[in-house]
Amino acid sequence: MKKLFLIVSLFCVNILISQNVVQVSTLSDAALALTKQQVTYDPSYFSIAYPNGDVPSSKGVCTDVVIRAYRKLGIDLQKAVHEDMKTNFSLYPKIWGLKRTDRNIDHRRVPNLMVYFKRQNAQKPITNNPKDYMPGDIVCWNLGGAITHIGIVVDRKSNDGKRNLIVHNIGSGQVLEDSLFDFKIIGHYRSL
To answer: How many Cβ atoms sit within 10 Å of the Cβ of residue 36?
Structure first.
């Protein structure tokens, strides 16, 4: 009887572990799933819930792609960035003239995400070699002047098979594009 109980117990544990593995997604998968959502580019300031707040699901900008993809993996960047900024405010950019944190918008700003990822030791070298940019990596670009952008490297390849594609929102919603080297890369991070 004990032997039967042990076998049944091990079988149940094995099923639970298998189900957890199946349910766990990668950042690349989460980003690709976002491309199925209809989203209008909207950089408006929104008052949102905290924690796990989000702008309306039909709206967003480039940072919202990253925020939503991480959220699909159970990581709340709104809370994580806010807590780190509260403790280390002086390390974050002063571009917006704020004197304190704003949990509605801080995590939705590319320069703040860059500081946060660097502080999490997620920073990787910036290179011109497409093989250095792996699925799940975060890439930040300078679009010109002070305009920054962010996207997620996914496990789909360009038509010539040389580069991984990017999921981002640069004005046309959450899309999949071959845009890794379209702009100057200013940040490269391996997912948390």
So the answer is: 7
